[in-house]
Write a structure and sequence with these properties.
388 residues; alpha/beta; nine-stranded parallel sheet; seven-stranded mixed sheet; 4 helices; globular
């Protein structure tokens, strides 16, 4: 049986801030995690993720072992999570192949009897793979734009529950897919540009307008507002004006405020009135500030990238292309800078290790996720690496 491995040990600074806190394979690209997309085209679950040292032993339900890179014996596929497969199944040849996209390597096919080494990746004959090659954390927004419409359209082939009474649909009602969720009367579904999918145990309150494509993950609560072209992972709490934004899961934005063309990591809490700018006054391409270097994103629309466990105070206003590091608490600035350091505590402080772990131990059980010793060790390792 073919095995699948995901290899991500060479991520550069352009992947700040998300690469500090979790494997890239566990980020959401469209409706699905990058790992899930590789699993779909490989036809098997991932055996392991090869990741940098500070992420080894990463602990989260459903995530395969995160380990040091090692030699792989075929039959196996090794994929690079900087590439997001579109979902077209691989037709694997008998001979070994370098998986490519637009002539760039994105993985390897290792048949039985062949070997792959992370120290010296082979240059085999190319096999083109359909999908999107990303260049930095900001391209998770690009992946959302590229993939969410076909992702949600796939759900319409399976159908769902009967549309709740009192729902208002603009477009084809078959493009509203409710899968064991609770939807109150008066919710508006505008599906002229894409389907809206509400997954199991989600709850949508009256006063919500969806503009597809949108997917609401299991257990997520939507408390009102206009939600457009966005993807929400499990057990988020959402309210307000949100457009073209991907929520990894377990995040809280339950108050008013505009979030646009942004990436929201896990365990993020956005205080009431938190608002992102997603367009420069010049209408030019957005640059991001990484370690003192200005990086061109090639995007005209880009809001904020929030790394895992980051938090904002009420009334926080964020400039176009802001990056907020892991565990940062944003408060005390008249206007936060476009680069907020990991574990920042207000404008001029740093969060202590024990303080960060104590907060996480209080936050995670609120979403019915156990704060185990393995989670504590994993988060502590991330803190030690980032603050070294």
């Amino acid at each position: 049986m073919t095995e699948l491995y995901l290899h991500e040990t060479d991520l550069g600074p352009e992947w700040y801030p998300i690469a500090d806190a979790r494997p890239l394979a566990e980020q959401r690209a469209g409706a699905w995690l990058i790992r899930e997309r590789w699993q779909a085209i490989a036809g098997t679950d991932a055996q392991a993720i090869f990741a940098p040292e500070h992420l080894r032993g990463f602990s989260e339900d459903g995530v395969p072992p995160v380990v040091q890179p090692h030699e792989v014996t075929g039959p196996a596929i090794v994929g690079l999570p900087v590439f997001v497969p579109s979902g077209v199944a691989l037709e694997l040849p008998k001979s070994p192949a370098t998986l490519t996209n637009d002539d760039h390597p994105v993985g390897w096919w290792i048949p039985a009897g062949e070997r792959w080494s992370p120290a010296d990746p082979p240059s085999w004959d190319p096999l083109e793979v359909d999908g999107l090659r990303m260049h930095g954390s900001y391209d998770l927004v690009t992946a959302l734009e590229y993939l969410l419409a076909p992702d949600t359209a796939d759900f319409t082939h399976e159908g769902g529950d009967q549309l709740p009474d009192g729902s208002i649909v603009i477009g084809d009602p078959s493009d509203v897919v409710v899968l064991g969720a609770a939807v109150e009367p008066g919710v508006i579904f505008d599906v002229r540009r894409g389907a809206v999918v509400i997954e199991q145990h989600a709850h949508v309150r009256s006063g919500t307008r969806f503009e597809g494509p949108v997917i609401v993950g299991p257990g997520t609560e939507v408390h009102g507002g206009t939600i457009a072209q966005s993807a929400f992972g499990p057990r988020c709490k959402i309210r307000g004006d949100i457009v073209s934004t991907v929520f990894a899961g377990y995040a809280n934005k339950v108050h008013e405020g505009f979030i646009g063309h942004s990436v929201v990591g896990r365990w993020v809490n956005l205080g009431a009135g938190t608002t992102t700018s997603n367009l420069k006054n010049t209408y030019g391409a957005v640059r991001v500030n990484i370690g003192g270097e200005r990086v061109e994103t090639g995007r005209q629309l880009l809001g904020t990238v929030f790394a895992d466990h980051s938090k904002t105070a009420i009334g926080t206003y964020l400039d176009t292309g802001t990056l907020i590091g892991t565990g940062a608490n944003v408060f005390g600035w008249a206007r936060p800078p476009k680069h907020v350091a990991p574990f920042a505590w207000g404008a001029d402080g740093k969060m202590r290790r024990d303080g960060f772990l104590d907060i996480a131990s209080r936050v995670m059980p609120r979403r019915k996720v156990e704060f185990t010793d393995a989670v504590r060790e994993s988060l502590g390792r991330i803190y030690d690496h980032v603050m070294a």
